[in-house]
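Its record is retained below.
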Amino acid sequence: MEQAVCKDIIKKGRNLLFAAALSAVVTVVGILLFAFVIWKAEIPATAENVGLIIISVISCFLSGLFVGKKNRERRFLWGLAAGIIYFLVLLILRISFGDNPLQHLTGHITTLLYCAASGMLGGMLS
């Protein structure tokens, strides 16, 4: 019985990591498409932040949807976890590029909230 529980935990963790990888791929593709649209349509630079937020929300939603479909139990919590992992990866990337997390604390909290909420929504709708 313990082996079955361990296998289930490993399977659910693997699904969560795959969902995180899925959200990274969706983000990269979304950013490339958005950059192309900005370049061709000559959209002002002020639209960049809105586009990046939309891309992040879609990525977290899709990862929450995926992990919720795969894990079947407590889907909203798995979606929440997927959104939080996405945010943590973004935060680590920002810090590695020299961003001071305390300087933009309000922005980081806002990012955490919309990533977590969209991942949770994806999990609930799965």
